[in-house]
DNA sequence: TATGAATGAGACTTCATTCAT
DNA sequence: TATGAATGAAGTCTCATTCAT
């Protein structure tokens, strides 16, 4: 029985943290953030309340971590070189990865999108969301400008609305949503 | 010195009840059912907590009353003669009145549709909603049968989904939603 | 329609008051003083809450009035000439009337005795009850002294305990309690 | 640093639970179930309101646990081999243990019997009480049948009534009740 | 790292009592 | 005399969070 290495401890921690987040997401999405207690999450995850607080500072911290973790997955592919400028190739790359993510874990994303329809949850994160949205909106607007369109801002908003709508439709029925067709349609429209 | 008449009492009750429901709808929709306390509703409505319970048996009773009151407004125009059969004229009448209602009180309906996206709220009413939905679905299916379509049930579901979608889009932006155009489109499609 | 005379008004008031007390006694005895609300008493009595407060100052006043009204019925026959002295004839008269009252309204007395087993109720009236009990205990002790018994105070207490016990047994089964036999036994023992 | 062992937690729970039950019994008996608030019990027991709910699901659960815990103590000695049949030796054993229990903790049993005279309390437990009473009544009836008596059911009821009466008298004055004499009288009558 | 006992603020709800009419 | 709308205090219960072990 050699003692675990620091690396092993870190991995255990990460795994445990992910388990808690998955359990919480499941419960928050199906019952509602305000209805689900920390006790319930802990017992469903098979740990004690105390230990949960070892991983998350508060219930609010937990939901925020869940939200931004998902958001991070979705946006890490936009502007990969972090130069604040979007190219046609980057946009294409983003769309490919975005749909790939939905395809790989449809149930996760169904639950995830659900969170945004809970007013209280949305309120907790809306400030940081607004920052993220504006950042990308600006990049998109610039991008559409560069394509010589008439009204680049409206095009950017419309693009965002399209992604929203896709999320919504997908949430309602993740298994039967025609991901490939929709992706191709978008690629055709924008790339 | 003489006590209020029965009529006076009835009027007081109806006015107050409506006031409470309006206040509650506003708060529930913007902050979330679980986050809004009875205290908050009462103080916003300018009454005591106790009085609210004079009008509603419980918080659950309050939200249910709000939900079914709205639902009643929406469905009172379907099958007006209550014979369980839908005619082309009745469908037309329904669509006209439905859009008319949205047009007259867009803010009310925006808040109202919002409620359906709160998991806890939906859970509270889903049983009775299912009954209502099935009733109308059956009538619609029969109606489409009578029009000689190939797959009347799918047509009925599709029609319902259209109304859902309209509610959703309308919710997002009630003032700018092209109600007239959408209504005409529907009338053209179905009547 | 000649206007009611003052006398008539007074009678109406008395009747109404008695009705409220009877209703309240019934409810208090069967469900418990603390469980029964003023609202329930009023609606069961067919009047409004407000009117009830026209007859009784408070819920406490109501139960006290009920208790002392019954106690008054029971004790009005003891020491009828109010001279603080009990004679053999007065004791006999008291026993006769006491049993007569039980016989005439067994259900009333069943409910009435029940009240004394509710700690909260008893606490509300215990001070005045103690005064009454002591008064009669003293009279009884004096009476037993005059009969030349060895331990008159114990005899007085024992007599009181007998009446208590009779009340208790009677409460459990008022219709089948052998009132006559018990009365005769007492008359034989004490008169 | 290491967490408490399971055994330690169990001990803490049992001790606390007993403390709460003892405090509650004291207060319920002296003031009445409906008058005593959870707050009062908690503060008298030196704990927070919240903690009480860690041990009991509700105020009703608390009183029921108290009642059935006492009832269990009283009845565990009846039919010790759980064969549904009462023998002369078992009856004797039961009476010995019953009186022994009263003798060891007279104040506890005084409070305990008091609960049964509170209408609301009795209502909460009457169903389960009826089941228990009927079980023992049946066993007693069978027992008296076996002794060749004329009317075994009446004998069984009478025996039960005797125990009731003993409880009542004992409640009124637990310290001076002649437990030994009464026990011997019963043993002489029934064994 | 891990547990669950313990706290305290705040939620829902009830009800005796008041008061305008 | 009579009504019931209205109040506010107090009760039951829940739960995020802390902490000794």
How would you portray this structure in words?
4 copies of one chain form a homotetramer. Chain A has 191 residues and is mostly helical. The first copy, chain A, is built from 9 helices and no strands. Chain A has helices at 6-31, 38-45, 49-55, 59-75, 88-104, 106-115, 119-146, 152-172, 179-190. Chains in contact: A-B, C-D. Chain A binds chain B through residues 29-35, 114, 117-120, 123, 168, and chain B through 29-32, 34-35, 114, 117-120, 123, 168. The structure holds a DNA duplex (21 and 21 nucleotides).
Per CATH, the class of the largest domain in chain A reads Mainly Alpha
Largest sheet of chain A: none
Strand content of chain A: under 5%
- Number of DSSP helices of chain A? 9
Topology record:
The structure is a homotetramer of 191-residue chains.
Chain A lengths: L5 H26 L6 H8 L3 H7 L3 H17 L12 H17 L1 H10 L3 H28 L5 H21 L6 H12 L1
Helix pairs in contact in A: 1-2, 1-4, 1-6, 5-9, 6-8, 7-8
Chain B binds a DNA duplex (21 and 21 nucleotides) through helix 1 and helix 3.
Features:
191 residues, Tetracycline Repressor, domain 2, homotetramer, Arc Repressor Mutant, subunit A, DNA-binding, 2 domains, mainly alpha, 76% helix
Summarize the model shown.
The structure is a homotetramer of 191-residue chains. With 191 residues, chain A is mainly α.
